[in-house]
Amino acid sequence: SMQVVFLHPDLGIGGAERLVVDAALALKSKGHRVSFITAHHDRAHCFEETKDGTFSINVAGDWLPRKIMGGFHAVCAYIRMIYITLYLVFASSFKPDVVFCDQISVCIPIIRLASRAKVVFYCHYPDKLLTGRESWMKWLYRKPLDWMEERTTGMAHFVLVNSHFTARIFRGAFTSLKDIETHVLHPTINSTTFDKAMNSRLRLNNSTLPSTAKYIFLSINRYERKKNLELAIKALDTLRDRVSHDDWGMTHFLMAGGYDERVSENVNHHKELVRLVENLKLQSKITFLRSVTSTQKMALLSSSTAVLYTPSNEHFGIVPVEAMYMKKPVIGVNSGGPKETILDGITGFLCKGDAESFADAMLRFVKDPTLSAKMGAAGRERVKNNFSFEKFATTLNGIIQSVARLSRELSVYSKS
């Protein structure tokens, strides 16, 4: 049994947060002592496992700013991460064998210098590629941060990535680290939670879903522009012209998304989508849901015919895995992580990222009401065979144990 501490900047609701919570659950299931240190944890906007006593959650530095004069988000994130790292090393009682960190690598050299812990870094996607360089000022601002990200990532004892797609992007983005071995650890789902939901046969009420709905399409994603949620709405608009009047009357779309009042993009983009629906006169056909609970998400998945997953070049994307485990086919864009999860024509459809292609796939489920169950069963088997929680837990446990045995001289950094 080892002590493993997770350093994560904000324990909210999102794919990165779901991953670290599942990783913590996996290591706890293998007998390790697991704790979190974070700069922000809102009990009204977090995963259940982070507030029900499953883990020790330690918050430090929440008083530090998230932005300065409306900008400098990255610098503030780096400062907050450095603060929680200093808290771990100098103010906490933790003496971890392994520190698991993700998203922000600036904490790694501090841990290396000030503790005996080994460091595992999980790269969801290089941060330097997530922000634009619209002006020379922005380029100048990002240059030292990009250098620091590459340099500090290389100091980890072990680097994990969430997909083969991200592994390729990692090697291209960090040229000085191209010889470092990255290991793919696909995210998983905590299948126990999903099994309970399926057994309880959760259903939606009529205020969420009209009683006439038979063909129910679902989108689950944060209200962010990069998630391309407009594509789902435009696909529904395109489908309207391709189905009979009766079938259109039985079609409904549910858009559920992560929504945080503190994040201006969530608020603004939700308004943009509502305006788009109004312009297309689809108000009676779409229900918007914000910040759904885990129970609501299960009910949404249970009630749907198929799930629309609209981001292009998504780094991994956990929603398709969740949907397939709940026996629901997924219509996704033929790029990025979904190419590693969705089997085209078997567990769903991989499409071009345009409304016509998505509408074509949606039409298949309207024309053949048996298709959803058939593809859903295949999806369930795919997740059980390739993305199971037990497989994830066993792999991660092996990594943690091997990292803990490393001497400081045998680090990834010393090879670079």
UniProtKB/TrEMBL annotation:
- Classify the main location: endoplasmic reticulum
List the pathway annotation: Protein modification; protein glycosylation
Subcellular location(s): the record lists: Endoplasmic reticulum membrane
Q: What is this protein called?
A: Alpha-1,3/1,6-mannosyltransferase ALG2
Name the job this protein performs: Mannosylates Man(2)GlcNAc(2)-dolichol diphosphate and Man(1)GlcNAc(2)-dolichol diphosphate to form Man(3)GlcNAc(2)-dolichol diphosphate.
TM region(s), chain numbering? none
Q: Hey, which family's this protein in?
A: Belongs to the glycosyltransferase group 1 family.
Q: What reaction is this protein's catalytic activity?
A: an alpha-D-Man-(1->6)-beta-D-Man-(1->4)-beta-D-GlcNAc-(1->4)-alpha-D-GlcNAc-diphospho-di-trans,poly-cis-dolichol + GDP-alpha-D-mannose = an alpha-D-Man-(1->3)-[alpha-D-Man-(1->6)]-beta-D-Man-(1->4)-beta-D-GlcNAc-(1->4)-alpha-D-GlcNAc-diphospho-di-trans,poly-cis-dolichol + GDP + H(+); a beta-D-Man-(1->4)-beta-D-GlcNAc-(1->4)-alpha-D-GlcNAc-diphospho-di-trans,poly-cis-dolichol + GDP-alpha-D-mannose = an alpha-D-Man-(1->6)-beta-D-Man-(1->4)-beta-D-GlcNAc-(1->4)-alpha-D-GlcNAc-diphospho-di-trans,poly-cis-dolichol + GDP + H(+); an alpha-D-Man-(1->3)-beta-D-Man-(1->4)-beta-D-GlcNAc-(1->4)-alpha-D-GlcNAc-diphospho-di-trans,poly-cis-dolichol + GDP-alpha-D-mannose = an alpha-D-Man-(1->3)-[alpha-D-Man-(1->6)]-beta-D-Man-(1->4)-beta-D-GlcNAc-(1->4)-alpha-D-GlcNAc-diphospho-di-trans,poly-cis-dolichol + GDP + H(+); a beta-D-Man-(1->4)-beta-D-GlcNAc-(1->4)-alpha-D-GlcNAc-diphospho-di-trans,poly-cis-dolichol + GDP-alpha-D-mannose = an alpha-D-Man-(1->3)-beta-D-Man-(1->4)-beta-D-GlcNAc-(1->4)-alpha-D-GlcNAc-diphospho-di-trans,poly-cis-dolichol + GDP + H(+)
Q: Which GO terms describe its molecular function?
A: GDP-Man:Man(1)GlcNAc(2)-PP-Dol alpha-1,3-mannosyltransferase activity; GDP-Man:Man(2)GlcNAc(2)-PP-Dol alpha-1,6-mannosyltransferase activity
Which taxonomic lineage does the organism of this UniProt entry have?
Answer: Eukaryota, Metazoa, Chordata, Tunicata, Ascidiacea
